[in-house]
Each structure stands twice: as structure tokens, then as C-alpha cells.
């Protein structure tokens, strides 16, 4: 499977991300890093190309004099958090002409770009019934094309097992981790199993970025209908009238409301990313939604 409609991200959008990088800190860390934006760095690590919006204090003017190109100094910060992006490639995400994986892959690319700009290391794992492919951890923006290439040509899985996919990577962690799961949410039991473990292990935080597809919430179900679980190759045939269709819609809506409620009660932040809207604006709106109300005024 090749994803091309939203990737690679366009330069104009990357500039918008750079300008909005301050909004990423609450999503990555859960706190607003006013001190880390202005405080002293702790360890010099190298250089990366200048991106509009970078603090000009960290431009290496000596390097500019030699190369006539702008580079900024990159430092390791003491409170660095590793960003682990878990991107669902199961059948429910990639079936037929669904845009769910397209949007999830673009969001993962945008999040990795923001991670690099805010001095976080980032890894990407494509998963289904197991981890299919992975890259990272990387700390420098030079790795961004490599991560984008991974997202453009993913392996396609069948079922979903987030716990089995995630745990090998958590066992290798050496610093605090923020796990961001990009999925449609059709995996309540695997999600809750992971949450129970993450909640009881220190220095880990989990976020669910759920792909919102209207077809998932209110599918057209009239007539002689074959209902299948495409991840288990199981199903049955029903004759669906208007009353049964409405009942099924209510049960689908109740499932997602209950899922988000249970996750929030367990300390997992959940955000929705519509797949039927222009990606760039909807992603930035979701990013802004993750900022606590008392911080939005300070950021803007």
C-alpha cells in the first residue's frame, strides 16, 4: 500500500507547524514549557538547518560566515521526553477507499516534525496484530524524510493488538515516554490492556488521537446486509430496516463515548481528528484543542 495524497507534507504547512511549535509541548509533555523555551540548554549536540520561527539566539553565525546558510545549534535538554508514535495499519484503518490511514500518516509526520523542532526524540511504529515496521529513535530533523518514507509505504496488517505491538519498545526505553496512538479506536480491549500497564509504570504518558470518520459513526445499513469483522474474518447476514439501523447507530455512538470516557478516567487524553475535512487546518485545530485553557492565552 502506498500513501501519496497527503504525504509528503507541503513546505507551506511545515512553516505553519514551525510557527505553532509552542502548542506541541502540552501534547508531548502535559505541561507548558515556558521555562524550557527560555532557559539555558544543558548539552550541545550539533546543528540543524534553520526553520522560520527558530530562536535567533541559537543561530550559529560563524557557520553562516563559512557556508552562507543558516543553521541553529541543537542542545539536549534535561527534561527531554521521547515521543513514540504508534500508527494503526490494521484493516479497519486501511480498508477500501478510507482516508483514515492517509490522515493518520500525515498526522504522524506532522507530530514527528514538531518533535524535532522542540528537541524531543521520536520513534514511529506501524502496527496491527504486531509491530510491522519501525524507525527511530531519532533526534534530528535530518531524519524527517526517512520517517516520511516509512509512512508513505506501510505494511498492511489484519487484526489489532496494541499491547503486543507496543511492549517491546517500552522495554527498551531509557527516558520518559509519551505514547501517541493514531487509530480509529476499534480496539477497546487492546487499548484498555495497554492503559492499565502504562498507568502503573512511572514516566510514561499515553494519548489517543482518534481518526473520526462519519462512515464509522453512521454507516448506511439498510436492506439485506452482511456485517463482518474484517479483522477476524467473521460475520453474519441481517435484514436491516430503519428501526434496526437506528439501534445500530446508537450502539456505535455509545461504544465510542464509553471508550473515551474510560480512557479519560484512566488518565489518557483523547482527541479526535476528522478525516473528511482539509487535513492541515483540522490538525492544527486538534493541536490547539490539546492546550489547557489556562495556557492558550499565554501561547497566543
Question: Could you characterize the architecture of this molecule?
Answer:
With 300 residues, the protein is of the alpha/beta class. It has 2 domains: 11-40 and 79-212 and 268-291, von Willebrand factor, type A domain (Rossmann fold); 43-76, no CATH class. It has helices at residues 11-19, 24-29, 34-38, 61-67, 91-94, 100-117, 144-152, 162-171, 188-199, 214-217, 242-265, 279-289, 293-299, and strands at residues 43-49, 71-76, 82-88, 122-127, 131-138, 177-183, 204-212, 223-229, 234-240, 269-274. A 6-stranded mixed β-sheet has the order 5-4-3-6-7-10, with helices on both faces. A two-stranded antiparallel ribbon has the order 1-2. Strand 4 (122-127) and strand 5 form a beta hairpin. Helix 6 (100-117) runs antiparallel to helix 7.
Keywords summarizing the entry:
two-stranded antiparallel sheet; alpha/beta; 10 strands; 300 residues
Topology, pairings included?
Elements: H1 11-19, H2 24-29, H3 34-38, E1 43-49, H4 61-67, E2 71-76, E3 82-88, H5 91-94, H6 100-117, E4 122-127, E5 131-138, H7 144-152, H8 162-171, E6 177-183, H9 188-199, E7 204-212, H10 214-217, E8 223-229, E9 234-240, H11 242-265, E10 269-274, H12 279-289, H13 293-299
Parallel strand pairs: 3-4, 3-6, 6-7, 7-10
Antiparallel strand pairs: 1-2, 4-5, 8-9
Helix pairs in contact: 6-7
